Amino acid sequence: MDYTKFLGKKEEAVLAYLGGPFAYGRDRRLRVGEPRPSLGFHRFEIEGRAARAIGPAESPDTGGLPRVRGHHVRGWITCASGASPGRAASPRHGRREGDPAARSRVEIVRLLPDEQPAPFSIVRARRWHSGDLVFESLDFDGEVEEAARLRLEKLEPLGEMKGVPASLRLAYGVALTTAIAARMGVALSVREAAAAGPRVADEGEDAARAFVGALAARRAEDAEQARSRALALDRGAREPVAARRRGAPTLDDAHLRAALALDGVDARLLSSRQLGGGNLEVAWEFMGERFISVIDALTLQVFDSGVCLAGADELVTLDSLPGVIREAIQTDALVITRR
User: Fold this and answer.
1) Cα(273)–Cα(296) distance, rounded to whole angstroms?
2) d(CA 287, CA 55)
3) C-alpha–C-alpha distance, residues 255 and 282, integer Å
């Protein structure tokens, strides 16, 4: 048999491109060549583990992918904890969504339609091979969803309102908390708001203001600690890096190394920029949330994680930081300090 005919074999497939250097098929991760396409479904020409976008495409048949259903709030959906169906092992990690470490009460939904769903709309999504949720369709709302929208307009709690499922109660609490935070001039993500969601849904504006005020105080305290650490370390005056052995990390390949480090722990690099003094600022995404961190461009040691770590930022590296953030999310302790 002439095996040479299989070398350089090309094929085409329709895949969801959700940002970053990679796209995911059913059984492999593919590096997306430049120029990268816009977010959405595209037809790719695939050669080995490299993919080149040919052009936009309609969504392929996703009927075989696990389906998740929940209530919409600010581009995310809320589900009862542990209610999401398990998914097959993905080419990212082989982790299954049913594992305790992978459960999430709120998840971002990718590729929503241009007409944004109304608050608390019932959304159906499919779990793509990367583990991301991609929009499938809307279900019909019931009277309870419409009643919740009317209460939100008045910033009233749900209280003892009957027939409210746990996913709607959480979505309502997130919506009310973020609305109150906006009035207080405090930026708040869906993930952060979810920590207080059920309580705020029950108790209303006073509970939301107390939560947002405490979170803002923690951010201010962390910012002060960061300033003190920066003055003490005086990183800008570090000695120039000595000549390094062949193949050692360089500033030029820092972006790629950061992308690979994050991809290995189920996160996605969005962008990076050199700050000087050997520092790299990276914008990255994990569990649907966007983070900005400052790291050493050569070692990927974290200087400023972008979240409250009680002054322990430098105890983690870029590839271990997502695990710390996952724990903060699971314990409702996530506080984002850089945006």
Assistant:
1) 12
2) 28
3) 8
- Tokens read off for 333: 């302790």
Write the pLDDT tens digit of every residue in 277-309. 899 999 999 999 999 999 999 999 998 999 988
Strand partners, 269: 284
Residues in the chain: 339
**Could you tell me if 214 and 308 are in contact, meaning their C-beta atoms sit under 8 angstroms apart?**
no
| Gap between the Cα atoms of 97 and 87, Å rounded | 5
User: Diameter of the chain by CA atoms?
Assistant: 75
Half-sphere exposure of 8 (CA within 13 A, CB side): 2
Structure-block tokens of residue 213: 């005020």
pTM of the predicted protein model: 0.79
Q: Which helix (H) or strand (E) holds 52?
A: strand 50-56
In Å, how far are 119, 221, 222, 328 from 335, measured between CA atoms?
Answer: 24, 11, 10, 8
In order of 21, 65, 104, 117, 151, the CA distances from 122 in angstroms are: 32, 19, 17, 9, 17
pLDDT digits (tens, 9 = 90+) for 195-245: 999 999 999 999 999 999 999 999 988 877 777 666 655 544 444 444 444
Collapsed DSSP state (helix, strand, coil) of residue 330: helix
Rounded to whole angstroms, the Cα distance separating 279 from 204 reads 43
- Residue in this structure with the two tokens 């969801």, named with its chain if needed: 16
How far apart CA 41 and CA 60 sit, in angstroms, is 8
Assess contact for 339 and 326: CB atoms under 8 A.
no
Coil vs helix vs strand at 143: helix
Helix, strand, or coil (residue 190): helix
Establish whether the linkage from the previous residue to 56 is cis, with ω within 30° of 0. no
Write the burial class of residue 55 (CB in 10 Å: 0-12 exposed, 13-18 middle, 19+ buried). exposed
User: How many alpha carbons fall within 13 Å on the CB side of residue 267?
Assistant: 27
Radius of gyration of the chain from its Cα atoms, rounded to whole angstroms: 22
The dihedral built from the CA positions of residue 256, 259, 262 and 264, taken in this order, carries a sign that is negative
Structure tokens at 3: 């095996």
